[in-house]
Amino acid sequence: MTPSSPLRLALRLHHSIPLPRLHLSFSSLSRSMSPAMEPQERPQVEASAPRSNDFSSDGVAHKSKVTVVGSGNWGSVAAKLLASNTLRLGSFHDEVRMWVYEETLTTGAKLTDVINSINENVKYLPGVKLGKNVVADPDLENAVKDANMLVFVTPHQFMEGICRKLVGKIKGNVEAISLIKGMEVKMEGPCMISSLISQQLGINCCVLMGANIANEIAMEKFSEATVGYRENRQIADKWVQLFSTPYFLVTAVQDVEGVELCGTLKNVVALAAGFVDGLEMGNNTKAAIMRIGLREMKAFSKLLFSSVKDTTFFESCGVADLITTCLGGRNRKVAEAFAKNGGKRSFDELEAEMLQGQKLQGVSTAREVYEVLSHRGWLELFPLFATVHEICIGHLPPSAIVEHRERRPRLSLLDGSATQYC
Ligand SMILES: NC(=O)c1ccc[n+]([C@@H]2O[C@H](COP(=O)([O-])OP(=O)(O)OC[C@H]3O[C@@H](n4cnc5c(N)ncnc54)[C@H](O)[C@@H]3O)[C@@H](O)[C@H]2O)c1
């Protein structure tokens, strides 16, 4: 396959390296992005001195061991990506352990047994081999006990319970990353999933978000992702290295909250895009909804965390994820069906019928965002977010998605600092 000019341009801009010559094959282009040829962009982790979590008390360097907590559609694809890299990179154990929420399949077999025998998650990622070094484990405690790199990737509503079970069960010097899109709303305010993990387990937690519809990455189609980190660039680079492949390009930005809120809030906008599709309102309307949604995503994020950077919204986790989710994600798909049915069939019913066990995140996130907006007196500032929730719970018809402007947004008010409102 010969890469098209826009793709070549995108890759060139992404890597800030000169592309050799025209008429490269995609595979040779991919090789041109390999670690050996990208000294200034690729993480230096392999070459640099090992960090504290690479050593035991005897001072001997140890390989990092990776466990994936979660085994749904994205969880399985993440395990596949990681497993291809742990085999290739000398500083990691080959095995990637994957905690599976055990299920009995219609055949009567246990999902874990099937994954371990045919190397495929037949329920959540059928038809894709995960790599022989992926080991499915139904025992959460056992799955994490030897790991020092934990990848969390479950639907967000299960994370609080999972963290509770893991307290005191993980090793010291563990690093975590969350691929989970969503937040928990507590009495004291919203809590991002990476903070929940950090607070409950006492470990540092980065995030990875991006324009990443799992099934496309499973097919090894080119895409990008963003790692958000708090302070430790070396750890961020290690995650970048662990996830990057020639078809999955990962960059790191120092903005955990910005990256995570982008990934979380775009699911609410995707519901709005789905309503527009269900009502056959056309592309102009959908583009308008995406633009208004992006503006609310940015304003909401910056009101919650004044540290959130404008530039984050131009990374893969921002505008790119918003576009792909509004064009092809499951939230859009189910919202389209909801609107086509005039809001008469509930999201729960449609989710069960259309997603075969996969979970919608947008509806619960819309409710959580609405709780924050009501609690802080911000409802009027975020008409799109507020309208999406009110449609989801049946207080407004799907057609209200283009009437929300009548609430007269005062987003110009949001140009000030977060402290004005918090
Ligand atoms: N699928 C994607 O394309 C995609 C892409 C990027 C990010 N994400 C995010 O990744 C996260 C995980 O999504 P996914 O697509 O891997 O999952 P999924 O929706 O495909 O599957 C649901 C998972 O939840 C598990 N589960 C069901 N009940 C449970 C319980 N009580 N406790 C714990 N687990 C339970 C199921 O076994 C299954 O593994 C979500 O936050 C999602 O937003 C998904």
Automatic annotation (TrEMBL):
Keyword list, A-Z: NAD, Oxidoreductase
Sequence ranges assigned to domain Glycerol-3-phosphate dehydrogenase NAD-dependent N-terminal in this UniProt record: 65-232
Catalytic activity: sn-glycerol 3-phosphate + NAD(+) = dihydroxyacetone phosphate + NADH + H(+)
SUPFAM superfamilies linked: 6-phosphogluconate dehydrogenase C-terminal domain-like (SSF48179), NAD(P)-binding Rossmann-fold domains (SSF51735)
GO MF: glycerol-3-phosphate dehydrogenase (NAD+) activity; NAD binding; protein homodimerization activity
GO biological processes: carbohydrate metabolic process; glycerol-3-phosphate catabolic process
EC numbers, comma separated: 1.1.1.8
InterPro entries: 6-PGluconate_DH-like_C_sf, 6PGD_dom2, G3P_DH_NAD-dep, G3P_DH_NAD-dep_C, G3P_DH_NAD-dep_euk, G3P_DH_NAD-dep_N, NAD(P)-bd_dom_sf
Keyword Oxidoreductase assigned: yes
Domain of life the protein comes from: Eukaryota
Family, per entry: Belongs to the NAD-dependent glycerol-3-phosphate dehydrogenase family.
Name used for this protein in its record: Glycerol-3-phosphate dehydrogenase [NAD(+)]
Organism lineage string: Eukaryota, Viridiplantae, Streptophyta, Embryophyta, Tracheophyta
